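Section 5.1 Outputs to date
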Amino acid sequence: TNATALTTTSSLKISIEVTPPSPHIITNATAQTTTALNDHIVYDIASLFENSDGTPVTMQIPTLANMSALLPWITFNETHLDISTTDIHTAEVLITAVGYFDLIISQTFNVSITNTAPTVQAPMGETEIFENITGSIVKD
């Protein structure tokens, strides 16, 4: 008898992609407040986030919480916000960090520039003021 042997070959390829977790918040953003109108606040927003392996994140351009552009008195320079104005203002700012595979995480915080009226530390007591007039009076 003539026996024919059959041989079958198969291959299986398995691909596993591991997506690292999104960046996370190291520290919650805190409200930035000043009562001095000419004060300049520099706020390091990039230090509030990090990737899961501890490496720095990339910051998106911050916006106001309603997704509109930042106001002219708040500027962004890659990692920091510069807040400086001579007027009274308030704003809620949205900051977003971008990690590996463009995964993101965001948080908001408030900025308040106020101007409080000066307060009297110790009231003055009653004071009498006298005017000293010297000279002569001439009668016609």
